[in-house]
Design goal:
14% strand; 39% helix; 450 residues
């Protein structure tokens, strides 16, 4: 099994107005009062745009074979379509070349949520043109880097882009379109399919998509149907088209917009079927599901905005059980094991754990050391779960830690830290945490043992 670490453009790069980069939906969303917990944005982030060599030194020091990063579409096609900004391409070319010089394989993701704002003005992912524009952008990138990149990912977590972005409204673009969010899901899949076909025709051989599939666990028998509906919107909306070339009946019943022939046009599903050569799985926590009947709402309990990310699923409650990380996500490595075994059985595809990691409140000790033992435990237990899934037959090719650096954690701003390396908010100095040293030690002992 191969090993890696991951980042995403908007979360680390900063330099959002440099070298002709266009505005992204995360720039405009973060500027809305109340959208991001600490009111901050990615304009500086970790300033990785200027410190990329230092950051790649840290990747190299970890001893991993893979670095997963994303490209900012608005750096390359600032208005989403049309004019190409060569300085954006130059930046990623230098990054890729620097990785290769270090003996690290690049694993680029083409879309990790920073849509050019100009496209949002024309409907964003609710518009079919965005899928076509995505495929054009993918080809621009492939043309420049295709001779040096072997493994590509199109989208990162399209569920978040579609349902947190267009139904719950807690991610950019922050819209509450309810069932129309399914349109975004279809167009994201279509964009993936169009890009994958064109990239493959141009010589790419390993084009995948990264999904945050989740094991869905009903709390009690009365919640089985609710859980099935949640599973349809979280998992099957992607796997159905990708594997079977179809949305299943239950999903169509709760998402009738997917029957609309203006949306799902003839040929779309055939194009999407079989379009992924591999699947990335991002896993943090299982999804427990319950339903709230009648008036038994817990008095005073704040409604969870994420329940709106499942349009058409009524009376939904998403409970968690301790232990929880600092972002409130339940720690349950068994969920990862189950998900890998089931997804491999369902799809037959090679899998990569493209993200796994934990937010904990880090404390810098008097000696300057962040002794993040809870993060080490989390990683150790989830790596063990991955190994159990492999032993049970799941074809898992790599495990990639989220994330290299403490960074802009979307709607949570800088309040939640997942990094193996801490970033000083004032100086942006990087300091590897105990988990970084632990992971590097794992890499050394595994390399010595293999
Ligand atoms: C995932 C995202 C990633 C990061 C982690 C914590 O949903 O893909 O960018 O924010 O969660």
């Amino acid at each position: 099994m191969a090993w890696g670490t991951a980042t995403a453009s908007y979360q680390i790069e900063g330099a959002t107005t440099k070298h002709g980069r266009g505005t992204s939906i995360w720039d405009t969303f973060a500027a809305r009062p109340g959208a991001v917990r600490d009111g901050r944005d990615g304009s500086v982030a970790c300033d990785s745009y200027h410190r990329v060599e230092e950051d790649l030194d840290l990747v190299e020091g970890l001893g991993v074979g893979w670095y997963r990063f994303s490209l900012a579409w608005p750096r390359i096609v600032p208005e989403g379509v049309g004019r190409i900004e060569p300085r954006g391409l130059d930046y990623y070319e230098r990054l890729v070349d620097s990785l290769l010089t270090r003996g690290i394989a690049p694993m680029p993701t083409l879309y990790h949520w920073d849509l050019p704002h100009a496209l949002e003005d024309r409907g964003g992912w609710l518009a079919r043109e965005t899928a076509e524009a995505f495929a054009d952008y993918a080809m621009v990138v492939h043309e420049r880097l295709g001779d040096r990149v072997d493994v590509w990912a199109t989208h990162n977590e399209p569920w978040c882009a579609a349902y947190l972005g267009y139904a719950a409204g807690v991610h950019a673009p922050g819209r509450r379109e309810d069932a129309d969010a399914h349109r975004a899901a279809h167009h994201l899949l279509l964009g993936h399919g169009l890009a994958a076909h064109r990239m493959r025709a141009a010589g790419a051989s390993a084009v995948g998509i990264v999904l945050n599939l989740a094991p869905v666990w009903p709390e009690r028998a009365e919640a089985d149907e609710t859980a099935d509906n949640v599973d349809a919107i979280r998992n099957r909306v992607w796997l159905g088209p990708l594997v079977d070339g179809a949305y299943d009946e239950r999903l169509l019943a709760i998402a009738p917009v997917l029957v609309d022939e203006e949306l799902v046009r003839e040929g779309d599903l055939d194009l999407i079927a079989g379009s992924a050569d591999w699947l990335g799985i991002n896993y943090y926590t299982p999804l427990r599901v319950d339903r709230q009947d009648g008036d038994d709402a817990v008095p005073g309990a704040a409604p969870n905005p994420e329940t709106h990310a499942y349009p058409g699923v009524e009376h939904l409650v998403l409970p968690t059980r301790p232990p929880l990380t600092d972002i409130g996500w339940e720690v349950e490595p068994r969920g990862l094991e189950e998900l890998l075994v089931q997804t491999h059985a369902r799809t037959g595809l090679p899998l990569v754990v493209t993200e796994n990691g934990a937010a904990y409140r880090d404390v810098v000790g008097a000696d300057g050391v962040v002794a993040d033992l809870d993060r080490i435990d989390y990683l150790r237990d989830h790596i063990a779960a991955t190994e159990r899934a492999r032993a049970a037959g799941a074809d898992v090719r790599a495990y990639v830690v989220w994330t290299l650096l403490d960074n802009f954690e979307w709607a949570e701003g800088y309040t939640k830290t997942f990094g193996l390396v801490s970033v000083d908010p004032a100086t942006l100095d990087r300091t590897p945490k105990a988990s970084y040293h632990w992971f590097a030690e794992q890499m050394r002992t595994r390399a010595a043992g293999s």
